[in-house]
Amino acid sequence: MPHPHRWHHPLCLAPRALRPWLTEAGSLTARLIAHHPDFQVRVLKQQAARPHQDELATLCLASGVRHAPTREVLLCAGTTPLVFAHSVTTAVAVRRGFRKFRHVGGRSLGSLLFASPTIARSRLAWCRVDARHPLWRKARKAVGPLPRRLWARRSVFYAGADRLLVTEVFLPPHF
Q: Binding residues for substrate, per the UniProt record (predicted)?
């Protein structure tokens, strides 16, 4: 199983309106575009960064790894942020199975991942994140004040032996 235990909160605890978004097996980007024709991707950063503690095991990284290719974006309806997305992979993966990761620019990462028949996806996992989790803090830095808890989901994309972990934090009041 690619996700630590804490990424398996019971889905029944999530708000009913959010559940279809948390469990969407297809491209979240495609679903957002269907609901928000003014969809935009706002790139916050794309650079090597320290992986979060709960990402190390999922990516099969040693605890001493200091930097990994990382991308953080806001998925927006016009200028309104809907989702804070955080993706992390390995240096080897961006030279092999996820070469396009470095050059995605302002496009959605999902548009690349779901367009390739050679990329597989793990089961989705979800949890509530709060101020103790680095993704909640990063989302707050990007968008301002937030509720105490937010729902997030994550999955691992595989290109052969290479892994790319994508986590999406759903922002209020839209979800």
A: 71, 109, 168
